[in-house]
Amino acid sequence: xxxxxxxxxxxxxxxxxxxxxxxxxxxxxxxxxxxxxxxxxxxxxxxxxxxxxxxxxxxxxxxxxxxxxxxxxxxxxxxxxxxxxxxxxxxxxxxxxxxxxxxxxxxxxxxxxxxxxxxxxxxxxxxxxxxxxxxxxxxxxxxxxxxxxxxxxxxxxxxxxxxxxxxxxxxxxxxxxxxxxxxxxxxxxxxxxxxxxxxxxxxxxxxxxxxxxxxxx
Length: 217
What we know:
By secondary structure, the chain is of the alpha/beta class. About 35% of the residues lie in helices and about 20% in strands.
């Protein structure tokens, strides 16, 4: 059975992984006959109250929070190598742009969490597929843009698209229920909640993108 890594960034759209996107990803992996291996970095992040959208002043741990989505079956990303995986997928949520990297603050000049960067680069060097959902393509662009010039989508937002272009990557506009495939670099991306106004729209695009990732293995 093919093993598909799922890199989580917390639990909740404003400070971690977008929960619906993460669950749709896990469901699509299972429906396509593969096995998900969840992981997250062991690090602290600033908590956001999801009722008010304001920071609480408290801190939480990314690995501990991500374990909520993974039902406790999760590993520290530093323990996972490209050799352990057939592909890897990054759900969205602000955690992908705030915890896994600093794209939300620094745009194209974003710093990447070192273990996350290592895994992405290992996967790219091994020519193993990488999937990115919602804002997560910005993480891939910031990590691989200079060396691989990947083709990616976050949908149609002009500001984010411009920042992705500044990394050396190429942004391609895409409707919410579709996806973009960079065949040369084996990177698949879909807009999900960067564009979705309905849960079914996010689910449809993610289902298609995950299937495309697995087909590339």
